[in-house]
């Protein structure tokens, strides 16, 4: 497990991607069962395509969110913290899609003993279709400095600039 | 002709609040296992007890966005599959988080996205509470017809009101 420091980060940098798939109906079923989601568009092809006029059964947004979250928890490591994340499900994903979560550093800021990193993030399929644009904020330790406090309290950052 | 789904009754629901509501059971190791296996995230904080005990978490934890999905059906709750013979029933209720049902006669529902602020992971064995508010309900008219956006803000805590995460969820009725 890597331990990234704020000094390792620069604006425009791409962070390591997370890739999942190709996704199948079995992946969708496993997730829907794990979270007890009974929405028919995830397992009832006839209902999804005829009633809801969708192209196929849908990969759950509630599942896709975790790919983006893993992208950032992997990036922050065990000494940093994923503070905020937000994204919109603008594109649909269906069985067969290979999904890649990506992030690019948009801004950096030193606050107190820690570095705050803002990123643009997204989830694209193997046809290069971007479907889940978003942003995130990660807090990182400085090289040789203390780990980001856990539980995380934004007050540790001091006042915003 | 444009149909306005944001009636006075729907507008009156904005700001409706409930909670804190306690999840039916504490965080279980088995549900965390099924959860991280389904999302295919092998981080040791979710499964390696020896590692987790010596980590900053003090024990096994659930993935960051687990709390919103921790509210399981209690034995006395209605069976969500009880209406599956109805051709328009999509498996989802319109009373989000147990708040009053959004009375909008649009038959289709999609997940529009999330915003989260994370403070702490939920640990295995901990209890989770949820407080929810209808933050906004509004209509947009797109190429495929009218869409109603239902925005719910949630705060998830554990015992002693210790914050876990906040969430803002967008659900689209169309």
Gross morphology of chain B:
elongated
Gap between N and C termini of chain B: 16 Å
CATH topology descriptor of chain B: Thiol Ester Dehydrase, Chain A
> Rough shape of chain A?
elongated
Q: What is the helix content of chain B? A: 10-25%
Mean pLDDT of chain A: 96
Architecture (CATH level 2) name of chain A: Roll
- Uncertain segments of chain B of ≥5 residues (pLDDT<50)? none
Task: Determine and state the CATH class of chain B.
Answer: Alpha Beta
SS summary, helix count of chain B: 3
Q: Any idea of the CATH topology of chain A?
A: Thiol Ester Dehydrase, Chain A
Average pLDDT figure of chain B:
95
Per CATH, the superfamily of chain A is Hotdog Thioesterase
| CATH superfamily annotation of chain B | Hotdog Thioesterase
| Percentage beta strand of chain B | 25-35%
Number of DSSP strand runs of chain B: 5
Q: What's the Cα radius of gyration of chain B? A: 18 Å
Count structural domains of chain A.
1
* Largest Cβ-defined interface: A-B, 45 and 44 residues
The poorly predicted ranges of chain A are none
Describe this structure in words.
The complex is a heterodimer of chains A (161) and B (174). Chain A contains 3 helices and 5 strands. Chain A is α+β, with helices and mostly antiparallel strands. Chain A is elongated, with a radius of gyration of 18 Å. The two termini of chain B are 16 Å apart. Chain B has 3 helices and 5 strands. Chain B has a single domain, classed as Roll (Thiol Ester Dehydrase, Chain A), CATH 3.10.129. In chain B, a hairpin with a 3-residue loop joins strand 4 and strand 5. By secondary structure, chain B is mainly beta. The model of chain B has no long low-confidence stretch (mean pLDDT 95).
């Amino acid at each position: 497990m890597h331990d990234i420091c704020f000094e390792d980060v620069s604006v425009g940098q791409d962070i390591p991607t997370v890739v999942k798939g190709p996704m199948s109906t079995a992946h969708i079923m496993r997730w829907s069962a794990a979270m007890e989601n009974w929405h028919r568009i995830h397992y009832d092809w006839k209902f999804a395509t005829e009633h809801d006029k969708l192209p196929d059964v849908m990969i759950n947004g509630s599942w896709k969110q975790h790919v983006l979250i893993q992208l950032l928890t992997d990036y922050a490591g065990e000494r940093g913290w994923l503070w905020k994340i937000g994204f919109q499900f603008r594109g649909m994903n269906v069985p067969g899609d290979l999904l890649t979560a990506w992030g690019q550093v948009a801004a950096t800021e030193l606050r107190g003993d820690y570095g705050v990193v803002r990123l643009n993030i997204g989830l694209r399929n193997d046809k290069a279709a971007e479907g889940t644009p978003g942003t995130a904020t990660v807090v990182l330790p400085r090289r040789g400095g203390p780990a980001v406090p856990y539980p995380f309290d934004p007050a540790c950052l001091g006042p915003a600039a | 002709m444009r149909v306005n789904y944001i009636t006075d009754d729907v507008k009156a629901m904005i700001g409706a609040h409930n909670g804190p509501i306690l999840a039916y059971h504490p965080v279980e190791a088995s549900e965390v296992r099924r959860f991280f296996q389904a999302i295919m995230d092998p981080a040791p904080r979710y499964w390696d007890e020896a590692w987790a005990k010596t980590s900053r978490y003090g024990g096994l934890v659930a993935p960051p966005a687990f709390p919103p999905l921790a509210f399981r059906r209690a034995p006395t709750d209605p069976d969500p599959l009880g209406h599956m013979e109805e051709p328009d029933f999509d498996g989802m209720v319109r009373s989000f988080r147990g708040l009053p049902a959004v009375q909008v006669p649009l038959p289709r529902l999609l997940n529009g996205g999330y915003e989260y602020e994370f403070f702490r992971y939920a640990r295995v064995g901990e209890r989770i509470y949820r407080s929810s508010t209808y933050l906004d309900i509004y209509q947009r008219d797109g190429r495929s017809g009218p869409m109603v956006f239902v925005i719910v803000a949630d705060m998830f805590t554990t015992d002693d009101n210790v914050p876990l995460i906040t969430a803002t969820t967008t659900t689209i009725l169309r």
